Every structure is written in C-alpha cells, then in structure tokens.
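Lab notebook, design round three. We kept the backbone fixed and only want residue identities now. Task for the bench partner: fill in a sequence for the structure below.
Input structure tokens:
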C-alpha cells in the first residue's frame, strides 16, 4: 500500500483527491494537511512527525508550494505537485533537490487527459502557424495568473519557433495590459477570472485566410483524479523528476 498524505485537503481539489485516494485499493490515506478543520494536521512537518508518508499530494497555494516541496524533498517524502505558480527557477531548484536527494517529484500544471491532448495538439499545430495566442479562463478564486497550463502550453509551442508574432505591426496599448502578457516566443496569454468557470483554455492560431482554435473545458474536478493517481504511482515506482503529466502517459 502506498501511504499518501494530501496537503490542502479541505480545498475543492483537495477534497476530490481525498476521495480518490480513499477509493483506490492500492493507496492508504495516512494524513490530511490543511490549516483549517479539526481532523487535519496544520503542517506537513506535523504530519510527518506523526505518521509515515510515502507520497504527498499538494494542492495548496502559490505562496506555499515551493517551501512545501523543499521540505518534502529534503525529508525523503516523494511529492506530486498540482499547485501552480512555481517559477522556472524554482522548478529547476526542485529538480536538483529531487536528483540530489533521490526523492521522486512530479509537477503537473494539469492532470486532465483533455488538457494534455490540447497541449500536444497545440505543439503540433505550432509547426505550421506563425501567429498564435492563448486565452485561459478560470474561476475567480484562482490566485495565480496566467495558469500553469497556459505557461506549459506556451513553453511546448515555443519549441517550434522563436516568435509567433510574424507580420504584426508595432503596437501601443492605450489601456495597459489589454494585449495580455508576453510569454515564451512572444506568445500573448490572456487570463480571465470569472465565477462559473472551473478551468478552460483555448489556443488560437492564425494565418492568411484561416483561423484554428483548439479548446478544452473542465466541468467537474473529478476529471483530474485519474491523472493524479497515475502521478502518485509513478513517483512511488520510478522515483524520478517529471515536469508535465504528458511525460508519463
């Protein structure tokens, strides 16, 4: 049995993860970590002192994930990270910690099959289009922008070419931020925060006489759970560093 702890256990994603772990015959939920609630540990360190943890799943907040991950990797706890907001530099440091401490770490901006396929399709389409932008739409309680999925998508697309602004005229924003943020290979990312959404993303490619739009919508957080459990099994068995669930599918 894989002994699993869930950090952010009382959040919307954490609640789904707790259910998924409890329903998996090969996993045992040994700790729920959350600053709220009476039946939870208030910190990873507190949970670690009280019970044996093989893998910790983190769905918390951008401000806490880096320190959470460093604690796990420095203390022999393998970690699956679903919290977004890590910088490239922080990801590189966690990769080094994972390697040096021989402790598995998997970071996934998105755990749904559809979103992973969107990223794969966008990477393929990027070979054939010179202009592209990304729009990501999330609920208004999401604290980081742009989303980790949008950043990862832009990174994958950037492997195809240096710039996706071919032929664009010089621009001047009359309202600051109206063109969104500039990411890898000059890809503009636009973030929408609105009640009613869970997570949606579209990648728009343009060329003379045609537009290609690739879009994915999440209607239920349960769609992420198959990917989360796959990630737990992977870090438990392989004990390596992985950035992106598509790398183990």
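Proposed sequence:
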């Amino acid at each position: 049995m894989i002994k699993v702890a869930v950090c952010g256990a009382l959040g919307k994603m954490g609640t789904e993860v707790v259910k998924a772990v409890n329903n998996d015959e090969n996993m045992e939920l040994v700790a729920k970590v959350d600053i709220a609630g009476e039946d939870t540990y208030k910190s990873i360190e507190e949970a670690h002192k009280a019970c044996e943890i093989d893998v910790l799943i983190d769905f918390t907040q951008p401000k806490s994930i880096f320190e959470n991950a460093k604690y796990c990797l420095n203390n022999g706890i393998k970690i699956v990270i679903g919290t977004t907001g890590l910088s490239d530099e922080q990801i590189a440091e966690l990769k080094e910690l994972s390697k040096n401490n021989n402790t598995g770490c998997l970071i996934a901006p998105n755990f749904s099959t559809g979103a992973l396929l969107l990223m794969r399709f966008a990477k393929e389409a990027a070979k054939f289009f010179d202009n592209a932008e990304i729009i990501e739409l999330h609920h208004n309680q999401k604290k980081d922008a742009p989303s980790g999925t949008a950043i990862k998508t832009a990174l994958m697309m950037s492997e195809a070419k240096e710039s996706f602004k071919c032929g664009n005229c010089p621009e001047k924003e009359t309202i600051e931020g109206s063109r969104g943020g500039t990411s890898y290979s000059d890809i503009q990312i636009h973030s929408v925060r609105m009640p009613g959404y869970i997570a949606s993303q579209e990648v728009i490619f343009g060329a003379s006489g045609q537009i290609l739009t690739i879009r994915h919508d999440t209607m239920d957080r349960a769609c992420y759970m198959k990917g989360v459990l796959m990630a737990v099994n992977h870090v438990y068995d392989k004990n390596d560093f992985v950035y992106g669930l598509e790398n183990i599918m």
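Keep this in mind before ordering anything: The domain at 2-107+221-247 is CATH 3.40.50.720 (Rossmann fold).
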